[in-house]
Design brief:
The protein is α+β, with helices and mostly antiparallel strands. The protein contains 19 helices and 6 strands.
Length: about 425
């Protein structure tokens, strides 16, 4: 977090910094003009962002109060990479059902008729959305450019508004830029590599096999995955806990070939762990919002968090009744919800559909569907980025002000967080 003087510099990077701050806040030009109390028009703000005009000291002061305008970066490309040239990709639409126009064959009509029919068609929101950025926008002009290679792939399964998606992807891109810059400075780049036998999941048997194989590769045995956020960070996946828009739970993608997972900071810890695991499946086996594939990814996530062999030890003999206290013991040890445990037991044939249904009815009657009676006590916080920041300061590689800017905090708070250096 830069100082007020840093943030208020109207230099060559100011247009990009202003646009980045507006997009991150999820504001349109009109929204920002309203928040400024009408002291400047949306057209004037557009000129500021294009570098065609500079704000007066009065307008600049109001902009700094409304927006978190970042300090000037070391390289201009580090801002332009996530403010310009975004394009939608792989957006699929579905027609609304129960309409006679659904069977229209537009190809058989002329251009005028086709345009008229297009106006009659109604479309749902995209069922899945990816965003990417051309690699050419991230490199200096003198470097060979690969226009076909995507440098920012962003997957979010929720139907968020355009403003919400833009704010979310800008926020993640900004964090990725800082993370990668810090790694580069400290020569601490960590590449995510994993050699699984299958690069996709086609059936439940493959999900069990792939989960067991990954546990073996990562020497997890049959024990719980403690602090999965830091665990994945230490294996090369950038992890962020965000206060995202309403309804946001998690998303994942790649930025400059580096995978990332972002989860909602307000999720219950067991839910956060499960969503992180499903996003890990998306990274490992390919991005998909197909319901059947999502079901396989959910099963893989449960298998990764709760090995079949250990669950069988709790539930055998199959078909017996099970006490809530037994489920609570599993949840407290493995960090997986009571509902996920029961669904996993059902998938493994350890309980009947009737018993699963009775369990769901019990949760519904007691109001436990959204807030379970047993809370997982483990902590889930990504630690690697913070660890690198602390190392950079204690080793005098970064000064406190620069490190605080990367960590998005104040020098005072960062100093208190680090404590004494000796």
């Amino acid at each position: 977090m830069g100082t007020s003087n840093d943030r208020s510099k109207v230099d060559a990077t100011f247009p990009l910094r202003l646009r980045a701050a507006r997009l991150k806040a999820g504001l349109s030009l009109e929204d920002l003009a309203c928040k400024l109390g009408g002291i400047v028009s949306r057209q004037a703000i557009a000129k500021y962002e294009k570098g065609l005009a500079a704000p007066s000291p009065e307008v600049l002061e109001h902009l700094l109060q409304v927006l978190e305008i970042p300090a000037p970066p070391e390289e201009v490309t580090s801002l332009s990479c996530f403010t310009d040239n975004f394009r939608a990709r792989n957006v699929s639409y579905k027609r609304k059902s129960n309409t006679a126009r659904q069977d229209l064959n537009l190809k058989k009509t002329g251009a005028d008729n086709q345009l008229a029919e297009d106006k009659k068609l109604e479309w749902l929101e995209p069922t899945r959305v990816y965003f990417c950025l051309n690699r050419q926008d991230l490199q200096p002009a003198n470097i060979q450019k690969d226009k076909e290679k995507e440098s920012f792939i962003f997957r979010c399964g929720l139907k968020l508004s355009s403003k919400q998606l833009t704010a979310l992807r800008v926020q993640i891109a900004e964090k990725m830029e800082k993370y990668l810059r810090l790694e580069s400075l400290l020569k601490a780049e960590l590449k995510f590599t994993v050699g699984l036998s299958n690069s996709s999941l086609a059936n439940p048997d493959q999900t069990e096999q792939a989960a067991g194989e990954l546990r073996q590769l990562w020497d997890l045995g049959t024990g719980p995955v403690v602090n999965i956020l830091t665990f994945l960070e230490d294996r090369g996946i950038k992890i962020f806990r965000l206060a995202g828009p309403e309804g946001f739970e998690s998303c994942s993608g790649f930025y400059l070939d580096s995978p990332f997972i972002a989860v909602n900071d307000n999720l219950p810890v067991d839910r956060l762990r499960f969503k992180t695991s499903t996003e890990l499946a998306q990274i490992l086996f390919g991005f998909s919002e197909d319901p059947a594939q999502s079901k396989l990814y959910n099963r893989w996530a449960a298998a990764f968090l709760m090995p079949a062999r250990k669950l069988e030890e709790y539930f055998l003999p199959a078909g017996r009744k099970i006490a809530l206290s037994e489920l609570a013991e599993i949840k407290l040890r493995y960090g997986i919800s009571l509902q996920a445990i029961m669904y996993r037991a059902y998938d493994l044939g350890l309980i009947t559909e009737r018993r699963l249904r009775a369990f769901r009815e019990l949760l519904n009657q007691k109001g436990w569907l959204t807030k379970e009676p047993v809370a997982y006590r483990g902590e889930e916080f990504p630690q690697r980025f913070k660890r690198l920041i602390h190392y950079a300061i204690s080793s005098e590689i970064l000064d406190l002000k620069t490190a605080a800017s990367l960590a998005e905090t104040t020098p005072e708070d960062l100093c208190q967080e680090i404590g004494d250096i000796f």
